């Protein structure tokens, strides 16, 4: 049985994240909302 999540406020929110290594921009304006019950995996070099 699945439970409905009534509270739709994010438990994690990232707005306009920027990251660079010197002149190499790897993130430019990244946005993310993570809600209760969700899973996220970020992989990279």
Task: Walk me through the topology.
Layout: E1 12-21, E2 24-34
Antiparallel strand pairs: 1-2
General description of the model:
With 45 residues, the protein is mostly beta strands. The chain contains no helices and two strands. The chain has strands spanning 12-21, 24-34. Strands 1-2 form a two-stranded antiparallel ribbon. The protein is elongated. The termini are far apart.
Brief characterization of the structure:
The protein is mostly beta strands and 45 residues long. It is 0% helix and 47% strand. The chain is built from no helices and two strands.
Count of alpha and pi helical runs:
0
- Rg calculated over all Cα atoms: 15 Å
Estimated share of beta-strand residues = over 45%
- CA(first)-CA(last) distance: 39 Å
Total strand segments: 2
Helix/strand order, N-terminal first? EE
The structure class reads mainly beta
Could you tell me the mean pLDDT? 88
Report on the biggest sheet: 2 strands, antiparallel
Provide the descriptors you would attach to this structure in a database record.
single chain, 45 residues, mainly beta, two-stranded antiparallel ribbon, 0% helix, elongated, P-loop_NTPase
């Amino acid at each position: 049985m699945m439970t409905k999540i009534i509270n739709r406020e994010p438990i994690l929110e990232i707005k306009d994240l920027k990251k660079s290594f010197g002149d190499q921009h790897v993130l430019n304006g990244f946005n993310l909302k993570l809600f209760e019950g969700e899973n996220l995996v970020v992989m990279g070099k």
